[in-house]
Amino acid sequence: MLVIIDVTHWEKDEHNAIFPVGARDKEMIWSPSYASEEIKPHWPHLFKESIARYPDQYWTELVAYIVSKYLGVDVPKVYPAIKHTQEGIVCGSLIEWFYDVNTERHIPAGSYFKKRIPDFDDKTGKEHNFIDMDALIRSFSQYAALSTPRLQWLSDMALFDALIGNTDRHQENWGIIFLPDCTCCLSPLFDNGTSLGHERFTENVRDWDKHRLTDYVMRGKHHLRFKREEPKKRIPHFEFLKILASKNTATKTHIQKKIDNLDFDAMIVEIADLIQIKTKIPFTQARFEWIKKNIELRFELIQQHLRHDND
Ligand SMILES: Nc1ncnc2c1ncn2[C@@H]1O[C@H](COP(=O)(O)OP(=O)(O)OP(=O)(O)O)[C@@H](O)[C@H]1O
Ligand SMILES: [Mg+2]
Asked: Which of 147, 174, 249, 303 is least enclosed by beta carbons within 10 angstroms?
């Protein structure tokens, strides 16, 4: 059973105490050397609050992490956390740093997109597109000893984002990690809180039937566009998977294996367990029901789309 981690006394990072990037309040803090069993000792973590209008959003990051474990895709570890402040208790997700800050360096993909594409619009990322992303990753394989298998990483991303309905995998939400041995790898899939219908208030969606939910889910799009010349056409989640699967048999097999190996029921049980955790802003039964309905339908639609990937 997960417990809430109290980070009140964790040390703030001297350079990045308050994080300048993104829409939500967050800080980089260091775990103590005696932290609980699971927590990596003396290691940086990101404490990330919910967006003010969605106070229970921080659970989404944790649910996405649970999904990633069952799917077998690389996502930094997430724990539910609190900190005591003068204004009272603040809830948030605590996310393990995904690289060693002393020996490794993470460069967000946005830096490379800006070099590649003149006048790249980094506010909307409307030129963030699959063709350039693929070319960029290929060039790291060719010239910078990239150790991550390109097609597997791409299909893991497309599958994971389709299953959680992530609309926010923009150019700052993936990147390249440079290692001391002069190789590099692609980052794990971080920043997964803008997903799983977090923006819907549960009282408004409680009565949605399957038809209404399908309509909502089918409108979901990835952040990526297919090509640079079509900045207004974000790729629908399930289309993206279909495109990847139809390009290459090994990719299709990789995706299908992940789907076949997913223990869906055990995953739902682990997500349901979060309801038991007592904290100021709990994971409610209603939030669980909504997320469960979403993932069930998404899983069904993924399977359907893959069966028809040649249509
Ligand atoms: N686990 C992590 N390890 C190392 N760096 C991280 C980690 N999580 C996030 N970062 C860095 O911090 C930046 C901001 O974090 P993140 O993307 O999670 O929040 P955000 O973009 O502000 O999200 P939101 O828009 O939902 O508020 C990322 O772009 C990335 O460079
Ligand atoms: Mg981000």
From this structure: 249
